[in-house]
Amino acid sequence: MFKNTFQSGFLSILYSIGSKPLQIWDKKVRNGHIKRITDNDIQSLVLEIEGTNVSTTYITCPADPKKTLGIKLPFLVMIIKNLKKYFTFEVQMTRMCVVAFGQVTTRA
C-alpha cells in the first residue's frame, strides 16, 4: 500500500480524529462493537474496539490480506489506553536482508 509512497517522519495508518479513521482497515465484529467515542481523560475522539472475546472483534490492516503495507520507517508507535481488560495486538514484520557475494581475481 505504501511501498511506492515517499516515507519520511511519520506515517499514520490509524488516526481516530480523522474523517474516516478505518478507511484502509478491515473490521470484524461478532458479539461486540467498534465505535468512535470521546475519551473523558483526553477529551478527544478515540476508537473503542470491544467484544466478548479478543478473537471475535478486531481490525486488520491492510484490509486485503494478500497485500502488505510496505512501511519502511524504522519505528512503530502505538498509543493504547489501559482499560484493565484483556487485549491483544499482532504486528507482522519482515526484514529484507540483502546479501552480495563478490569475487576478486588478480591477473598476472
Quaternary state of the chains: single chain
The low-confidence runs, each spanning 5 or more residues with pLDDT under 50, are none
Arithmetic mean of pLDDT? 83
Major sheet details: 2 strands, antiparallel
- Number of beta-strand segments: 4
Percent helix range:
under 10%
Total helical segments: 0
- Strands side by side in the biggest sheet: 1-4
Compute the separation of the termini in Å.
53 Å
> By helix and strand content, what is the structural category?
mainly beta
Helix-strand pattern = EEEE
Number of self-contained structural domains:
1
Radius of gyration: 20 Å
Proportion in β-strands: 15-25%
Instruction: Name the overall outline.
Output: globular
InterPro entries: CFA20/CFAP20DC, CFA20_dom
Protein name: Cilia and flagella associated protein 20
Pfam family, one: CFA20_dom
Domain CFA20: 1-94
